[in-house]
Amino acid sequence: MDKIEISGKHPGPPGTGLCGKLTIRGAKNAALPIQCAALLGQGTTRLRHLPRLTDVSTMNGLLRELGCSVAADMDARTVEIDPDQVGAGTLEAPYEQVKTMRASVTVMGPLLGRFGRARVSLPGGCAIGARPIDQHLKGLEALGAEVELAHGYVELRAKRLIGARFSFDKVTVGGTQNVMMAASLAKGHSLLENVAREPEVQELAVFLNKMGARISGAGTDAIEIEGVDALNGIDHAILPDRIEAGTFAIAAAITRGDVLLEHAPVDHMHAVIDKLVEAGVECRVEDGGLRVIGPERIRPIDVVTRPHPGFPTDMQAQIMVLAAMADGASVIRETIFENRFMHVPELNRLGADIVVNGNTAVIRGPTRFSGTTVMATDLRASASLVLAGLVADGQTEVRRVYHLDRGYEAIEARLRPLGAEITRYHGAGA
Ligand code: EPZ
C-alpha cells in the first residue's frame, strides 16, 4: 500500500503558502452514475474529461463484467462503452465488485429499465455508515419491479416498468439516480418527489435527455419523466469536480496561499464558497475558475451538512481543518452520515483540539499542527489529513492512501508545483 509524506510548516505571512494554478478534473460523482447510464444506450457512448481515479476504473471493470465492450484511454481521459452484448450476460453486479465500490449499485436502474432484470449484491455498510439502499428498492418497486432479497443479493425483475408517482422517504443521491434511470425507459409518466438536487443528479438528467430521455425538474425537489422506448449512445464531457475544487480551495486558504482553481464549477459551490468567505478567505471568480487567497487570520465558523444546495457532507472533513486553524471555537454538525468523524482522532493526533458529541464536533483553534504518522480511513477523511499535513510542523506520513486515490487524481503531483513538499512512496507503509 502506498503512503504519502508531507514536509509541512506552520503558515507564514499571507502569500507565502501554496501559489499558482491547478486544473480541476472531472467529477467522480458525476462520472460513476453516467458510466452506469451508458448501459441504457443503443450503440456506443463516449465519455470525455474523465478523472484518472480508481473508482472510475473499477466501474469500467464492472461494465466489462456485465458484457460491455469498454475502451478506456485514460491518457486522453476518455472511455467508449458499448453495451450491445449486456442483454445476453449475467445482468449481475457481484459481491466482490460491490464490496469494492458501493456505487456499483447504480447499475440496478439501467439493467432493470432496459433488460428487465438485475441481480446486485447488497452493499454492506461502509466506514462512514450503514448506507442502506431501501429507498432505491422502494422506488423501483413503485415502477412495478418485483424485488427479492436472498443470500446477500437483491434480484429485481419487470417485463416492462410502468411510470408512477413516488416520493422518497429520505433524500438520496444514488436512489434518485437509480430510479430516474429506470423510469426513463418505463411505459408512461413518472413523478419522483423529495429527490436529491445535487449537481451530479442534474448532470445525469442532462446526459439522459441527450440520449433521448424526456426528463424535467432535475435540480428541484421533484423530477418528471415521460418514459420512452429506447435511448441512444452519445458523446458527453464530464463536469468538473466541486468537491475536489473545495478541497484545494481549503489547501490555499490554510497555507495563506494564492491559488487559481481552473474550471472550478463555481455555480455548484455556493455553500462552500459562502462558508470560506465567512471564515475570512478571499474567493474571486476569475479566468473561468475560482481564485482563493488565504488570509492572515481565519475566523471560526459553524457548519451543518445538508443535501444540496446546503453544505456538502463530502466537504465536512476538509473544512474541519480550516476550522482548526481559526481563532476560536467552531461547531460542525454532520446530518447525512452517522459515522463521518473518523478523521477527528487522527487530526487530534496531529495536534488539533476537537471534541465530538454525537453528530456534533467542537473544534477549538487556532491549532499549531505538528507532523506525525496518521492512517487514512475513508476518502474525504484522508484528504483532511493531507490538508493538515501541509500546515503541520515537520513530517506527516499518511498511510493507506488508496482511500485518497479513489477520489483525488495524483494529489501529490498536483500540489507539488504549488509549493507543497509532498512525496508518494509506493508499496510502503501499513
Ligand atoms: C453519494 O452517495 C455520493 N457518492 C457520496 O460521496 C455523498 O457523500 C452522498 O451522495 C451524499 O451527498 C456518489 O455519488 C458515488 P445518499 P450515496 O444515498 O448516493 C441514507 C464521496 O466521498 N440512505 O444520498 O450513497 C444513507 O445511508 C462519497 O465522494 C438511506 O437511508 O448517498 C445516507 O445516510 C461518499 N436509504 C443518506 O441517505 C437509501 O436507500 C444519504 O445517502 C439510500 C440512502
Q: Which ligands accompany this protein?
A: ligand EPZ
Structural class assignment? alpha/beta
CATH superfamily of the largest domain: Enolpyruvate transferase domain
The DSSP helix count reads 14
In angstroms, what separates the terminal alpha carbons?
A: 7 Å
Tally of domains = 2
Q: Supply Rg.
A: 22 Å
The residue-averaged pLDDT reads: 96
Compact description:
This protein is α/β, with parallel strands linked by helices.
What does this structure look like?
Helix 1 (28-37) packs parallel to helix 7, helix 4 runs parallel beside helix 6 and helix 10 runs parallel beside helix 12 (379-390). This protein folds into two domains: 3-25 and 240-425, Enolpyruvate transferase domain (UDP-n-acetylglucosamine1-carboxyvinyl-transferase, Chain); 28-237, Enolpyruvate transferase domain (UDP-n-acetylglucosamine1-carboxyvinyl-transferase, Chain, Alpha-beta prism). The chain is of the alpha/beta class and 430 residues long. The chain has a four-stranded mixed beta sheet. The protein has a four-stranded mixed beta sheet with strand order 2-17-19-18. The chain has a four-stranded mixed beta sheet with strand order 5-6-4-16, covered by helices on one side. The chain has helices at 28-37, 54-65, 95-100, 108-115, 134-142, 173-184, 199-211, 242-254, 270-278, 316-324, 343-349, 379-390, 402-405, 411-415, and strands spanning 3-8, 19-23, 41-42, 45-48, 69-73, 78-82, 92-93, 117-121, 146-150, 153-157, 165-167, 189-193, 215-216, 222-226, 231-232, 235-237, 258-262, 282-286, 289-293, 302-304, 329-333, 354-357, 360-364, 373-375, 394-399, 422-425. Helix 6 (173-184) links the parallel strand 11 and strand 12. The chain is elongated, with a radius of gyration of 22 Å. The chain is built from 14 helices and 26 strands. Bound molecules: ligand EPZ.
